[in-house]
Structure formats: C-alpha cells, structure tokens
Amino acid sequence: MTSLGPSLKAGDGPKKFELPFNKDNLCKKLFINNEYVESKNAKKLELRNPKDGSLVADDVALAGEADVDAAVAAAEAAFPAWRKVSPTARRDMMYRLADLIEENGEAFAAMTRLTLGAPFGSFGSFEINLCAEGFRYYGAWVDKFSGETYPQDDGFLKIVRNEPLGVTAGIIPWNGPMGNVGMKAGPALATGNCFILKPSEKTPFSALALGALIREAGFPPGVFQVLSGDGGTGALIASHMRVRKVSFTGSTATGRRIQEMAARSNLKRVTLELGGKSPAVVFDDCNLENAVSWCANAITANTGQVCFAASRVYVQEGVYDKFVAAYKKLMEDKAAVVGDPEAESTVLGPLVDKAQFDRVRGFLERGRSQGSLLVGGGTIGDKGYFVQPTVFENVAEDAEICKDEIFGPVAVLNKFKTEEEIIAKANDSNFGLMAGVFTQDINRAMRLSAEIDSGMVGVNCVSLCFLQAPFGGSKESGVGRENGMAALKMFTEPKTVMVNLTY
Ligand code: NAD
Ligand code: MN
C-alpha cells in the first residue's frame, strides 16, 4: 500500500456473479438487513400472468407492521456509518450494482415480464437499462454534489451542507418496476441515505431478487432493503414516525393519501410522481411524419401504461385530415404487433392485470358515446388482458375520456384553429406532467413551451425523459422532481453553518 492507497493487481477485476433467482425460481422473501427473511405477516400476495390470467404465485411475502419496523430499525442502525462511507467506496458500490443489474438484465426482465407482460425488446430491456444507468448516473454524483458558501465580508462565513435525511423509502408502481428503482434508490444512496424499496404488489419479483445483488455489490446491512407488499405496506411506511422521506410514483389518489399520512405522522418529506393527461399539439407547419410517429409511440409504449403518455392529441385544421390518415394507419399497425410478451415479434403486451383491463374496457365502452371511434375500441383474443390501440375523435373537452387518466393505449384526437385556443385547451386539465409541440416555427415552439403549464415540454417530440434533467409534474401531476440534480436536493436537507470570523 502506498500513500495513494491500494493498487490493483492483474486479474483483480470483479468476478462474475450468478443471480440466484430467475423466472422459474422466483424470490418471495423480504430483504431486510442484507438477509432474505420470511414475512412475520401471515397474509401473502397472489400474482397472475396477464397474458392468460394463470397463477404465478400465491405465497409472496406481504410486509406487515413488524416487518416494516424491522427494516426501519435496521436502516436507522446502518445510517451513522453509511453516511460516513468514503465517496469513492459509495460510488464503487453503486457502479458495481449497476454492472450486476446489467449482467443479469435478461433474468430481471423475464421476472418482471411474468406479471407485467412487457416484451423485452420494446420495454423490458429499456427499463432494466434505466435502472442500471440510474445507479451509474447517481454514483457519479457522489463526489460532485457540492454545497454552497456565501460572502464573508460581514465577518461571517456561511456554508451550506447537503445533509442526508436518514431513513428514506420509495413506493413504486408496477409500470416500471426496475426503472423506478434506479431513479429513486440512486439519488437516495448517493447522498448517504438508507433506502427501503416497496415495489408494487403487481410486480414484486425483480425488486426482491435485487437483494442478492445489493449484498454482492458491498452495501452494508440495512442500507438498501426491499419490502414487498400492498397498499397497506405502503401506508405503514408513509405514516411511519421514523421514516424521513417517501418518494412515491403512482396514482394521484394514492399520492394525495401519502401526502396526508406524511403530514399526520412526522412531516416526512414527500416527492410525488403522479398521473397525467398530457397534450400533444400538432401545428400545420410540422414535419407530419415525425409528429405522427411520436404521437402513436407515445400512447402505445408499454401498452399505454406510462404516466407521461401523450393521451390528448390536438391537430391544427390545415393538416388535420392528413394527420388522421397517417395516424390511423400507424395505430392499426400497432394492433398487429400486440400479443404474447414472450414472443420476439411482439411489441405490445397485455395490460398489467384484470383490474386494469376492466378499468380500460370501461373507458372504451363509455368512450363510444363521448366521441367517434377512429380506430380500435375493443379487446383482443379470449384470454389475457389484451386491448386494441384506440383513438376517439371529436371528443368534448369536458368528456370523461378527455379529462381522466386512462392508463392504457387510448388517445383522444381533436382539431384546433389558433394558438391561443390550443394553449387554453392544453392547460384545461388538473394534470400538468408533459406536453409536446410539433412545429417548425422556433418562436411558436418557445412561446408554447413557456405558456403550457406542465413539468416537461417536448418540441418535435413527446413522452420522453432523461436521467440528466428534472422529471416530474406541475398541478396534480406531482410534487417535487426526480432525475438530475433535482433528485439529490429532494433527498437532502440543506444545513447552514455560520462561522464567526471576528471571534
Ligand atoms: P397505486 O397508486 O394504487 O399504487 C402505486 C403504489 O402505491 C404501489 O406500490 C401500491 O402498493 C402503493 N399504494 C397503494 N395504496 C397505498 C396507500 N394507501 N398508501 C401507501 N401506498 C399505497 O396505483 P395502482 O392501483 O397500481 O394503479 C391505479 C392507477 O394509478 C392506474 O390506472 C394509473 O392511472 C395510475 N398509475 C400511475 C402511475 C404513474 O406512473 N404515474 C403508475 C401506476 C399507476
Ligand atoms: Mn391502488
């Protein structure tokens, strides 16, 4: 060892690690304090495969109060040492975890696919990559997220430190069961917090299997734990007196309850990533092919089960007929690639479960009296939860299908005349997550980017996000932001240190 620290010997590279779980050997236990343990709760989760409704498992741990308490206690015990781990060591654990996730990517995607139904090529691989890249992106921030200092001319030096919050948690949805992990655990761990992951009751298997990699990557016991469970488990976490922060992604209704539970308990910090009814606005002067393809992809990716899907499409009158013809054709093409998520030719899988299928079917049926059906409108096959990519045209602004988040491959399409009119319509929503503006006029694009009330605006693109830049919504689409430096701020508390220089 030199003063510069240990040097690598030849052949010291990380050894290949074999994930002990796969789709035929699912992990059903909680991961607490770096050990897999049975839940102390007798109740279990039941999971079905959405491609045919068949039973996948009915014996998956459902964390109850004693389990949540055990995880919180382990996290509290781990926190003092974890926050003092050197930045390079913490970074290296995050990088190692990213590599391990990537190496086992296909196994993770297969475990997720069993109960989500997302094909590997179109969505499964994308969200595994997002997960691994989340740990890399935030691993790289560990030694770069600096504090602040302010002028000392008045005799006082002011230093602002970014302090970790302590025990933090992520309550995540089923539509991106792994992608969400990188986006939440990444910034939490990078800033020295302990993190408890609560996956959705509809997609627990990848998250539970992650425990083996957490341990292998070198995270100390209690730093990163996984509690499978349902909404009740989430509520125990959100109302826990010793959890300091919850980062939530899911429905607006649940987000509201989490904010309430946080307020009623210990005023824990809350980040909410909720629903949307995002508009795509297509102007006469756009590149039509580009606009049509973004709009069709936006509402069909992951079978429309994406919070920032552009589900309201507004097209200016001059290009309307041409747009409709091309859009209808593309949506019909999408219907042709709906099918078994295990088949390589499949692009769109089923909806996640019977509840979501019934919900979307309800919108499809009621939609027929709220607009005219341009394409789709029905279900596919006689087993599983498959629906046709669907577009309703000429829908009144106050119709249910124009107001409510459907969370399926269902868009509403309307014509507009003027910029003023469309800004008002785009903003006439309780949501404000994403918007898209399709035009070749840079001034108009910039005007709309300023005028539309949403957390994100795409110009000549829509329904996309990047780890580097804030992700989240205005109005009832959320509170706070994920991704970028914004997420690091959401997982830290600024502490102002004032130094008297004249003493
Ligand atoms: P949900 O909001 O009920 O569930 C999301 C997560 O919150 C899950 O982990 C769940 O266990 C947990 N949860 C549920 N109730 C809770 C409670 N009272 N306290 C704490 N945690 C709780 O969403 P869902 O039931 O899976 O889906 C319903 C609708 O939500 C969908 O149709 C869709 O509109 C919307 N949704 C949005 C997103 C998104 O990315 N914004 C993701 C999933 C679902
Ligand atoms: Mn729910």
Explain this structure.
The chain is built from 15 helices and 24 strands. The two termini are 42 Å apart. The chain has a seven-stranded mixed beta sheet, sandwiched between helices. Strands 9-8-7-10-11-23 form a six-stranded mixed beta sheet, sandwiched between helices. Strands 5-6-24 form a three-stranded antiparallel beta sheet. Helix 3 (105-116) crosses helix 4 (120-141). The relative contact order is 0.13. The protein folds into two domains: 30-274 and 478-495, Aldehyde Dehydrogenase, Chain A, domain 1, CATH 3.40.605; 279-467, Aldehyde Dehydrogenase, Chain A, domain 2 (3-Layer(aba) Sandwich), CATH 3.40.309. With 503 residues, the protein is of the alpha/beta class. The protein binds nicotinamide-adenine-dinucleotide and manganese (II) ion (MN). Nicotinamide-adenine-dinucleotide binds next to helix 7, helix 8 and helix 11.
Ligand names = nicotinamide-adenine-dinucleotide, manganese (II) ion
Radius of gyration: 24 Å
CATH fold node name of the largest domain: Aldehyde Dehydrogenase, Chain A, domain 1
Strand content: 15-25%
Rounded mean pLDDT is 96
Largest sheet: 7 strands, mixed
CATH architecture call of the largest domain: 3-Layer(aba) Sandwich
Q: Determine the number of helices (DSSP H or I, runs of at least 4 residues).
A: 15
Question: Under the CATH scheme, which class of the largest domain?
Answer: Alpha Beta
What is the terminal-to-terminal distance? 42 Å
- In which range does the helix fraction lie? 25-40%
What is the molecular shape?
globular
Spans of at least 5 consecutive residues with low confidence: none
- The H-level CATH homologous superfamily of the largest domain, spelled out, is Aldehyde Dehydrogenase, Chain A, domain 1
EC number: 1.2.1.3
Domain Aldehyde dehydrogenase: 36-497
Pfam families: Aldedh
GO molecular function, one term: aldehyde dehydrogenase (NAD+) activity
